[in-house]
Amino acid sequence: MSNHFSQSKSGMSVRQARGIEFSIVGLCVIALLLIFQPFSLTLFGIGAGLVVLAGLSFNLVPLCRPGRPVGSVVKAGLVVLLVLLIVVLLGIGSAHLYVLYLSSR
């Protein structure tokens, strides 16, 4: 039991690091499959959103190394989500301002 605790304090194991890395790559593959499927526009829309999220989360792959603390990967993931949120808010805000500009003309 103390071995498991000391291993989690020192960082990720090889299996944990590979699991995170493969799940990120799997998300990218699923997103691409959803974009290029010819059946549903709804699945295409979901895939388009997942491509953006997967592309941003792919920046976490270099952090998935054995011995690196899980907290650093989580912290970097939160930074990626914060950047995505800021970009979305800027896009929606600029579209709203453009609508106001067009309605005032």
**Helix fraction bin:** over 70%
Number of strands: 0
Describe the main β-sheet briefly: none
- The coarse silhouette is flat
Unreliable stretches (pLDDT < 50, length at least 5) are: none
Order of helices and strands: HHHH
Structural class: mainly alpha
What is the terminal-to-terminal distance? 71 Å
Please indicate the percent range of residues in DSSP E strands (runs of 2 or more). Answer: under 5%
Task: Write out key terms for the chains shown.
single chain; flat
Question: Would you mind describing this structure in some detail?
Answer:
The protein is mostly helical and 105 residues long. It has one domain (2-104). 79% of the residues lie in helices and 0% in strands. It contains 4 helices and no strands. It is flat and about 60 Å long.
Offer a concise description of the structure.
This protein has 105 residues and is mostly helical.
Secondary structure elements and pairings:
Elements: H1 2-10, H2 14-35, H3 41-57, H4 70-104
Helix pairs in contact: 2-3
